[in-house]
């Protein structure tokens, strides 16, 4: 954190929201919160960077779903036809729930990154998708960065007392 700082927070959170393995934002975001609690960066800036990175990563996967998702889905379903009822059911639920479904999905591990692709496949209204994604990303990141900020500050205060 001290060497790459804000850029590291942005890039790692971006890659994690693009669902790339090995980029644990659930670890990085609390560390960013700890760093902010020690004055390395402001808490609001940490939140802003993590939300911007999460939203950009979500937009990239939305674009992948919108541009090539149907083709991929067709190939996948030809290879695994038994999966079709479950996939169609989940797409129908997302289509029915719309923006609310995206928001809630952004608060569930695993779903929070994957939901962007089906939203793109369904060609969900981009503005509604973006707003619901941004709100969900904000809540999720606020929890993790905030936990690091408050718990990290408390841990440092305890260490200074001893």
End-to-end Cα distance: 25 Å
Q: Report the biggest beta sheet as strand number plus sense, adding barrel if it closes.
A: none
**Radius of gyration from CA coordinates:** 18 Å
Structural class: mainly alpha
Counted beta strands: 0
Query: Beta fraction of the residues?
Result: under 5%
Helix content: over 70%
**What is the global morphology?**
elongated
Instruction: Name the average pLDDT.
Output: 85
The quaternary structure here is single chain
* Helix and strand element order: HHHHHHH
How many helical stretches? 7
Uncertain residue segments: none
Task: Outline the secondary-structure elements.
Blueprint: H1 5-17, H2 25-37, H3 43-79, H4 84-105, H5 111-114, H6 116-121, H7 126-161
Helix pairs in contact: 1-2, 1-3, 2-7, 3-7, 4-7
Supply database-style keywords.
elongated; 162 residues; mainly alpha; 7 helices
Nutshell version of this structure?
By secondary structure, this protein is mainly α. Helix content is 81%, strand content 0%.
Write a structural description.
The chain has seven helices and no strands. It is elongated. Helix 1 runs antiparallel to helix 2 and helix 4 (84-105) crosses helix 7 (126-161). It has helices at residues 5-17, 25-37, 43-79, 84-105, 111-114, 116-121, 126-161. The chain has 162 residues and is mostly helical. Helices cover 81% and strands 0% of the residues. The protein starts with a helix and ends with a helix.
């Amino acid at each position: 954190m001290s060497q790459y700082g804000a850029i590291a927070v942005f890039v790692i959170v971006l890659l994690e929201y693009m669902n790339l393995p090995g980029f644990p934002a659930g670890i990085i975001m609390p560390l960013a919160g700890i760093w902010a609690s020690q004055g390395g960066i402001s808490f609001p800036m940490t939140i802003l960077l993590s939300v911007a990175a999460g939203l950009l990563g979500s937009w990239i996967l939305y674009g992948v779903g919108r541009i090539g998702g149907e083709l991929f889905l067709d190939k996948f379903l030809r290879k695994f036809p038994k999966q079709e009822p479950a996939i169609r059911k989940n797409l129908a639920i997302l289509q029915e729930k719309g923006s609310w479904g995206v928001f809630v999905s952004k608060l569930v591990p695993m779903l929070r990154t994957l939901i962007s692709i089906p939203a793109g496949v369904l060609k969900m209204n981009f503005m509604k998708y973006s707003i619901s994604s941004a709100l969900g990303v904000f809540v999720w990141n606020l929890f993790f960065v905030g936990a690091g900020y408050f718990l990290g500050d408390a841990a440092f205060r305890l260490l200074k007392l001893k």
